[in-house]
Amino acid sequence: QVHVVESGGDLVQAGGSLRLSCAVSVSGSAFRITYMGWYRQAPGKKRELVADITSDGSIKYADSVKGRFTISRDNAKNRMYLQMNSLKPEDTAVYYCNADGQSDLGYIYPYWGQGTQVTVSS
After folding, report:
1. Strand pairing of 116-121 and 11-13?
2. Facing residues of 94 across strands?
3. DSSP secondary-structure letter at 89?
4. Cα 32 vs. chain centroid, distance in angstroms?
5. What is the C-alpha separation between 25 and 4, in angstroms, rounded?
6. Rounded to an integer, what distance in angstroms lies between the CA atom of residue 29 and that of residue 115?
7. Rounded distance, CA 36 to CA 96, Å?
8. 46: Cβ contacts below 8 Å, ≥ 6 apart
9. Are the C-beta atoms of 101 and 33 separated by less than 8 Å?
10. Quick check: 96 and 112 in contact, CB under 8 A?
11. Cβ atoms of residues 38 and 95 within 8 Å
12. 3-class DSSP state for residue 30?
């Protein structure tokens, strides 16, 4: 069983910074976290990928956040972070953490947190 919790969302002025955290708790030693990613969903829009990182450290960013956001993870603690700098009003959204858990039989299951609200005022 995997439980995902995001934190760090807040109201911030344009140009400001925030750091989001994602904590993943895993029950059962035979279960490991592979892929992790940050997604966001603004009102009236589809959920979109912000950045993701694999267990071996491969990273991908959406073009809209390149150079402003930095994703990182701590594999030992099953935690992931998103440092967001130079925030813009268009970054306003609910940010979700996605973590893929792999069982000892190799099956992969996606898990999502409840989301954390980021609001950037102009």
Report:
1. parallel
2. 41, 117
3. G
4. 17
5. 7
6. 26
7. 11
8. none
9. yes
10. yes
11. yes
12. coil
Q: Give the separation between CA 78 and CA 14, rounded to whole angstroms.
A: 30
What pLDDT digit, counting tens, does each position of 60-109 carry?
999 999 999 999 999 999 999 999 999 999 999 999 999 998 888 889 99
Rounded to the nearest integer, the mean pLDDT of the chain is 95
Please report, as a single letter, which amino acid is at residue 13: Q
CA–CA gap between residue 35 and residue 32 (Å, rounded): 10
How far is C-alpha 97 from the geometric centre of its chain's CA atoms? Answer: 4
Q: How far apart are CA 4 and CA 23, in angstroms?
A: 6
Q: 């940050």: which residue's tokens?
A: 38
Q: How many CB atoms lie within 10 A of CB 70?
A: 15
Q: How many CA atoms lie within 13 A of 49 on its CB side?
A: 14
Backbone φ and ψ of 28, nearest 5°: 105, 115
| Residue 113 φ/ψ, nearest 5 degrees | -85, 180
